[in-house]
Predict the 3D structure of the following.
Amino acid sequence: MRPIGQRRTTIKDVAEAAEVGVATVSRVLSGTGSASAETREKVLAVAARLDYRPSALGRNLRRRRTGGIGLLVPDITDVFYGRLADGVLSCARSAGEPVMIGTTGDDPEREAHLIGTLIEEGLDRVIAVPSGDGEMWVPALRSGLGVVFAERPVRGAEHVPSVVTDDRTGVRTAVEYLAGLGHRRIALLARHGQAQRVRAFREALAARAVPVDEELIVHAHATRDSAYAAAAGLLQHRSDITALVAGGNLLGEAAVLAARELDVRVPRDVSLIMFDDVPWAELCHPPLTVISQPAQDMGYRAAELVLREGRRARTVTLPTELIVRASCGPRR
Amino acid sequence: MRPIGQRRTTIKDVAEAAEVGVATVSRVLSGTGSASAETREKVLAVAARLDYRPSALGRNLRRRRTGGIGLLVPDITDVFYGRLADGVLSCARSAGEPVMIGTTGDDPEREAHLIGTLIEEGLDRVIAVPSGDGEMWVPALRSGLGVVFAERPVRGAEHVPSVVTDDRTGVRTAVEYLAGLGHRRIALLARHGQAQRVRAFREALAARAVPVDEELIVHAHATRDSAYAAAAGLLQHRSDITALVAGGNLLGEAAVLAARELDVRVPRDVSLIMFDDVPWAELCHPPLTVISQPAQDMGYRAAELVLREGRRARTVTLPTELIVRASCGPRR
DNA sequence: GCCGGATGTGGATACGTTTTCATGAATCTC
DNA sequence: GAGATTCATGAAAACGTATCCACATCCGGC
């Protein structure tokens, strides 16, 4: 496809033009090893004149690894993961590393397939939001792949560095806030895999001496349809609830939609708190009270972690923040 | 980092174990060339037994190109580009191609830098939402890079395949709809670079014999701050407008926010139409009437185009759709 | 029975880089 | 001043694959 004779200029061309060996050119350009000032200058001048750019292909093969980092998220359409990806890209850019991205759709099988592709490509550093129980990571981890988990911890992989939000505190803050307003029948809308938040939810209720009604803990898959079905089912079937915690912006969206559809008024009939401070939370009617999660930071920190490959495994827990708007009121 | 002795199994290992030459293994596995049924079977069996995965590194170097496609978008945080990326990823996945992503921040310089990185990595197929006037693409195009532009056409690069929305019709539909409601002082909030939409806006007004007030065409950069400043300035300074078209979801968000801040009621005081049918448009108060753009399709089609490298350059124009909700009313 | 073509096969080469190693020169040490 | 140490340098060897080419074999046709 490339015009004939338009061959890329290689290190060999530079070496010949500068009348030195290829090894010298490589050393000068990569900054490793020693070279006399005179030689260095000559090589740099020639390289600039020929507009030489070292080919990552050759380098990668030689080093037996591709530079750059792999990024696996469930759904790039979800603003939360969009921000997370943005954080990763931001850090990767300042480190000069390219990023290869893939979406898992929260499907462990698809995720396993993507891991295979990444390994095939020679990627050896990956940031992933693991789906399922994360068991498909075991062989990859054993083979020496540098992995950092984001958003969700993986049980039994505590030796793998992770960046997560402080779910426990976040959920407790939400529950305490609602309980403080007098609510006792509080429901939780959770995504499959948010076991941590469910556990924290139970604990927070128990701490307030509110009996846990298991029927008020509803699970959904990470799709709009599933989320809507769960929210609608809950609001329809249990009209006695007075408050609702949505474990993510997709679930919150579904809750708002379902409430509107069923003519359940927020916050008069039911108070609503959502995880994720997405832009539309403020535009919504009423503006949504949220538990904000630092998605972008999460991505940035994960990228930092995966790039410092020498360090010890460390789990970073980022704080959440309650942002009060207008979707919660006193118990009716 | 990889455990010692844990060397990857290479094509050579397979060849030895199957008692054939490496060339034969390569032929069998890549499906090219001829091989006897017996040999083929043996090779496949051995490859499976050894869990052999061909290294993309070696292949890429040999082929002098990296498989996979590069994707350059202004801001992955913007739902529109999130969807576009999702479309690209979807098509790329079914073609088995990895995707390397980068965000330009709408900065031509940053974009040029990213192009350089992509070329260095050996990528030879790129989908890009070009920023600025797209002049930094000239050398890349000349060097034989397979480029497809998405969302925005580049003037003077009509020979480059592109996938865009039918801006002209979209804008006209919006203006006609508003004019039909009796509005004559219609403002346009546009991002820098949306010259096409601005032109279409002027034409649509002219077609309705509405004089064009240049002051009602306001430009903003692709950031929340800039969008808000533009929207607030417009609403504050020109309280005589009765309708507003926002050229993107960021601008629409800013318009809603600014209107709320300035106590301008929608649609009573001013009618609002936004480009992009994002999920929150329905959750907003009032629900926003929008010109929907098929962002995901756009990404998918762009990926298709960039993968069929034999074809002629072709510009695909995708239709828009007016979705009427509740943010427009008759002229007050 | 000989020849032309098709078919299967493996050795060898090239892709562009980094890194090791040997060599020679220069500088230092006592 | 001789030996030891540092330094600059380039030739050569990988890295793992795809492909060119030569060779051998087989087959059908005359």
